[in-house]
C-alpha cells in the first residue's frame, strides 16, 4: 500500500513538474528554432554576398545546392506593357524569387550590373537607389505576407569583383516593397568603380495571399553630387509602384531603369 501511494505521489509530482516546465520548453523550442534560422540565414547571406560578384547564376547554383528552391517565372502578358525596361546598353537587371525548403521562408532578390565600364561616368556623385516591390496583377500592394525580422540586405561590388559590404543599406520599407540606397564611387588611376554591380534582397516569413504576383526592381543612378532630401516607393492607383528619389538640386545626369516579372511561389 505504501509503495502504491508513493508511486502515485511521484506520478502527481512528475505531472505538476511537467506542467510547470511546459511553457519554458515551448519557449526554448522557439528560441532554438530562431537560433537555427539565424545561423542558416547568416550562412546563406554570407555566400550570396561572396558569390554575387559572379552574377545571379552563381547565386542560383549555390542556393539550389543548399535547399533554396527557385520559383518559376511566368511569362507576362505583353499587352500590360511590363516587358523589361532596362536602359539599353547601360545596365542589366535580374529578379528572382525563392523558397527555403528548410525554414519555409521566402526570398526576393534583385541584381544589377553595368554592361561595360566605359559606360560609367567618372564623376559618380549623389546616392544611387534600388527598390524591390511586390504587387498584385492590378498593381495594388500584396497582402498576407510577413516581412522577416530585419528583412533586407544588399551587397555592392566594383568591376574587379571586390565586395563593399558597408556601401549600402535598406533604408525604407514601404507597404510590400523595400527601397535601398548606396554610395557609388569612382577610384581614379585604376579604373575601379564601386557600384558596378550589386544585389539587394529581402526575406518573408509567409507568402503573399495573392498568386501570381509581380516583382518589380527599380534602379536609379546619379552622376553629380546632390543632397538627398527623401526617397521611397510610390504606389499610384492603377499603375506599377515606382522608386522616387528627391534631391535638393537635380543631378546633371540621372538614369532610371526598371524591370517587372510575374512569379508564383510554391506553397506548402
Automatic annotation (TrEMBL):
Highest taxon above the source species: Bacteria
Protein name stated in the entry: Uncharacterized protein
Amino acid at each position: 500500500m505504501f509503495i502504491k501511494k508513493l508511486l502515485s505521489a511521484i506520478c502527481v509530482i512528475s505531472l505538476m513538474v511537467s506542467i510547470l516546465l511546459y511553457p519554458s520548453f515551448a519557449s526554448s523550442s522557439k528560441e532554438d528554432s530562431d537560433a537555427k534560422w539565424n545561423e542558416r540565414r547568416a550562412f546563406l547571406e554570407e555566400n550570396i554576398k561572396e558569390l554575387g560578384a559572379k552574377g545571379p547564376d552563381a547565386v542560383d547554383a549555390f542556393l539550389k545546392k543548399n535547399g533554396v528552391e527557385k520559383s518559376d517565372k511566368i511569362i507576362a502578358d505583353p499587352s500590360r506593357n511590363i516587358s523589361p525596361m532596362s536602359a539599353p546598353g547601360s545596365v542589366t537587371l535580374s529578379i528572382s524569387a525563392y523558397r527555403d525548403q528548410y525554414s519555409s521562408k521566402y526570398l526576393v532578390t534583385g541584381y544589377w550590373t553595368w554592361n561595360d565600364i566605359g559606360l560609367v561616368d567618372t564623376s559618380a556623385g549623389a546616392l544611387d537607389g534600388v527598390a524591390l516591390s511586390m504587387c498584385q496583377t492590378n498593381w495594388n500592394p500584396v497582402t498576407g505576407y510577413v516581412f522577416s525580422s530585419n528583412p533586407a540586405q544588399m551587397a555592392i561590388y566594383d568591376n574587379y569583383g571586390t565586395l563593399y559590404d558597408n556601401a549600402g543599406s535598406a533604408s525604407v520599407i514601404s507597404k510590400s516593397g523595400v527601397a535601398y540606397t548606396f554610395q557609388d564611387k569612382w577610384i581614379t588611376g585604376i579604373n575601379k568603380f564601386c557600384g558596378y554591380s550589386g544585389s539587394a534582397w529581402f526575406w518573408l516569413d509567409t507568402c503573399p495571399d495573392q498568386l501570381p504576383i509581380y516583382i518589380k526592381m527599380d534602379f536609379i543612378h546619379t552622376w553629380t553630387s546632390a543632397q538627398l532630401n527623401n526617397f521611397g516607393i510610390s504606389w499610384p492607383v492603377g499603375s506599377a509602384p515606382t522608386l522616387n528619389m528627391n534631391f535638393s538640386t537635380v543631378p546633371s545626369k540621372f538614369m532610371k531603369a526598371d524591370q517587372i516579372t510575374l512569379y508564383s511561389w510554391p506553397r506548402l
